[in-house]
Amino acid sequence: MTTPLLDVRNLSKTFGARKVVDDISFSIARGQTLGLLGPNGAGKSTTVSMICGLLQPEQGSVQLDGLPMGLGKNAVKFKIGLVPQDLALYDDLPARENLKLFGALYGMSGSKLQQRCDAVLELVNLADRAADKPSTFSGGMKRRLNIAAALLHDPELLILDEPTVGVDPQSRNAIFDSLEVLKSQGRTLIYTSHYMEEVERLADHIVIIDHGKVIANETPADLYRRLPAKAALSVDLVREMSEADVAALSVLDGVNSVLLADQGKRLDVTLVEHDVALGLLDWLARHAYKTTHFATAKTNLEDVFLTLTGRSLRD
């Protein structure tokens, strides 16, 4: 069996009377991308802090590449790059000087530091803004520079804690382009986010935490199997559908239920499986029902997440 790059075992942490992290365990293989999910207050950030050696667990252990993580100055920490939720930049220093400062903290200097600055600025598409100060950057550009700083020392594990909070769709897409390049290069990533579509796009494996405990630790495909397949088709019609055609549609193979809305001009159909939708659209065309719009739906990560953690609001 291959030794995991990161091995988290039985982590627990209490603040006051509240147990924020309660016996959490998971591992991540080299080259894998792990999505770490949970509602607000579930214990994600505390877990990340313990993984990075910023917070001492009351019990349990963290090993990276077979070496124990600890507080203070620790050589294992050099193997981790952390992109925190809060921006860690000096607004009045040009982007390249920011990177040089962070590089110096890792003992980097000279041509090696220059080369790494060039490489990470290119990766996050900020090479043309290297001489500009972050105070002139958009929120998305600052986030990308934050990622560049975490990558400067070429870490074995990159941890991204809500890296797209407060950025526009274009910036989110630019960040994801960079992360997908890293993934294609075999970089190991941990990604925490409230945006389910981001984790679906990136993660090979997903850990869901709630009330300080791991409630799911599996691949996306295995998570989807926890729910009955949800397949549906919604169609807007030019003309109202007759009662006879509704009855005929309801008994077609693969159709579970049919509901008419909007004075008979919108059709909502639940299906046994997603592939049935094509046959249903063909049936509508053959029966002279022209459509102005249609949309399909299937089980996604948000459905699974809400089923496991509930729909009530969290602090």
TrEMBL record:
Keywords, A to Z, come to: ATP-binding, Cell membrane, Membrane, Nucleotide-binding
Q: Which domain of life is it from?
A: Bacteria
- What Gene3D superfamilies does the record tag this protein with? P-loop containing nucleotide triphosphate hydrolases (3.40.50.300)
> What GO MF terms are annotated?
ATP binding
Query: Does Membrane show up as a keyword for this record?
Result: yes
Q: Does the keyword Membrane apply?
A: yes
- UniProt domain ABC transporter: residue ranges: 6-236
Identify the PANTHER family for this entry.
Answer: LINEARMYCIN RESISTANCE ATP-BINDING PROTEIN LNRL
Instruction: Output this protein's name.
Output: ABC transporter ATP-binding protein
Name the species this protein comes from: Undibacterium hunanense
